[in-house]
Design brief:
- This protein is mostly helical.
- The protein has one domain.
- It is built from 15 helices and 4 strands.
- Strands 1-2 form a two-stranded antiparallel ribbon. Strands 3-4 form a two-stranded antiparallel ribbon.
Length: 339
């Protein structure tokens, strides 16, 4: 029984931890990447300051979850890491460089005024490209990297195909919609009204990409089609698209009624449902459809050792994150800021 627990349940626990870290990163860092994506849509200097100030207390702490997700994959599932990383080295490098430029721009934009235009460009471009390449990486992995004998067997551009590009554009639209919901919820004045105007077209774009992915993947990947459309699981999984439609309608109602919290959390719900659909489609593979969770797992002793260090830290990170969001709650008026 003890051996079964170690070999079977430890990989599941780690997969859940890594999946949770990735979801938290997407949700928490998504809205502040959305600020940069939306940045070029206003030329008003005060509104741009307000956008950056609305996320100033949170943006760097949000990236903690990216480190946990990537580091956890390397430690707990080294075989999957060894297959995935060679396949997506270039988009990962592009994403990290974009995050660096964005972070530097965030710090230097305010102190370099009035000569700060280059930092505006760096902030907008870094945010947009980081979001795009995150979607590209996700699309490349889901679409199945070429694997032979448990090793990556493709070239440096194996990640570059229409599906991954589509996922990249969809991620940009999703992050921008999260940013709109955040601005509607956390700011006052003309900027909040502009965000309401941006949100409705972005919702339409995001839903179009969700529909395209939902149709494309079962058409080209028989394993996913069998998972979703075979009986009797079809009846159980039907709840996912139904809930997606209901949450999308909630987001639409929130935008039309100018309810920022409803818009933001409905968009969060759309992301969560998309991740649920992804998990249903790929489980139990970490490298679809080549390496399962158990095949990719490190030695149980290694997983347990790192898990014992991770578990005490997670509540601390969550409490600290909650404290920061509670401390800086409320709406940001024009001219106010934390920077």
């Amino acid at each position: 029984m003890d051996s079964l627990w170690f070999t079977y349940y430890l990989p599941l626990i780690w997969a859940l931890l890594i999946g949770t870290a990735i979801v938290l990163y997407v949700l928490l860092d998504g809205f502040d990447l959305g600020m940069g994506i939306l940045f070029p849509h206003t030329k008003d200097e005060g509104e741009r300051d307000q956008m950056m100030n609305s996320v100033a207390p949170f943006w760097d702490g949000n990236e903690t979850w990216l480190i946990l997700g990537g580091g956890g994959l390397w430690v707990a599932f080294p075989k999957a890491y060894a297959v995935i990383m060679p396949g997506v080295y270039l988009p990962i490098i592009f994403m990290l460089l974009s995050l660096v430029f964005r972070g530097v721009a965030f710090e230097f934009r305010f102190v370099s005024k009035p000569d700060h235009r280059k930092w505006d460009v760096a902030f907008a471009a870094g945010s947009t490209l980081a979001a795009f390449f995150q979607g590209v990486v996700l699309g490349a992995v889901v679409y199945q990297l070429p694997v032979e004998n448990g090793a990556f067997a493709g070239g440096p551009l194996a990640w570059l195909h229409p599906f991954s590009i589509m996922c990249g554009i969809g991620m940009v639209a999703g992050y921008a919609l999260l940013g709109c919901g955040w601005l509607m919820m956390r700011t006052e004045g003309p900027l909040a009204r502009k965000a309401q105007g941006w949100a409705l077209p972005l919702l339409g774009v995001l839903l179009a990409f969700i529909a395209a992915v939902s149709i494309w993947t079962p058409l080209v990947i028989p394993r996913i089609a069998d998972r979703w459309f075979s009986l009797p699981q079809f009846y159980y999984l039907l709840a996912v698209p139904v809930l997606t439609a209901l949450v999308a309608f909630s987001a639409y109602r929130g935008i039309r009624a100018n309810r920022g919290a409803q818009t933001f959390f409905s968009t969060v719900g759309l992301f969560l449902l998309c991740f649920l659909g992804l998990a249903v489609s790929v489980f139990p593979y970490l490298v679809p459809a080549s390496v399962t969770i158990w095949e990719a797992a490190a030695a149980p002793e290694s997983q347990l050792f790192v898990l014992l260090g991770t578990i005490p830290l997670l509540p601390i990170i969550l409490i600290y994150t909650g404290f920061i969001y509670w401390t800086f709650r409320g709406r940001l008026k024009p001219g106010e800021g934390y920077h």
